[in-house]
Amino acid sequence: MDITITNYVLVPPATAIPHHLLWLSNIDLYTKMHSVTAYLYKPVQHSDMQAVCQTLREALSKVLVHFYPLAGRLITDETARISVNCNSEGVLFLEAFTDLKIDDLEDFESSSELQS
After folding, report:
1. 64 within 8 A of 11, measured Cβ to Cβ
2. 3-98: what fold?
3. Pick the residue with more confidence: 61 or 115?
């Protein structure tokens, strides 16, 4: 399975968010998991994929205004407390293409190839 990443960019919130730190609660610190999400779409016939990706980036940017901590970074302070640095750095947005068809994936389950 060949997957070609054609573009990657950090998408910041659409409007400026005041820079601040959010301390994580003890419950936040207890759970140690990371979720990787892949969205797969069947293209509309003769669709302009650059325009589709641009629309998705703009929508993500608008959503991040309301969910701005997701556009920040985790940091550890001098007391080893973990916080979210709400710096509006942005969320990584990848554009990728493959010669596979969605139907080829059948009952799609995440594989190590997609996680690399």
Report:
1. yes
2. Chloramphenicol Acetyltransferase (3.30.559)
3. 61
Q: Give the residue among 114, 110, 97 at the shortest CA–CA distance from 47.
A: 97
Tell me the domain boundaries of the chain: 3-98
Q: Long-range contacts made by residues 59-68, C-beta under 8 angstroms, separation at least 24? A: 60/11, 60/91, 60/93, 61/11, 61/12, 61/13, 61/14, 62/14, 64/11, 64/12, 64/13, 64/14, 64/88, 64/90, 64/91, 65/13, 65/14, 65/15, 65/17, 68/13, 68/17
Distance CA(103)–CA(113), nearest Å, equals 18
pTM of the predicted model, to two decimals? 0.74
How far apart CA 17 and CA 88 sit, in angstroms, is 7
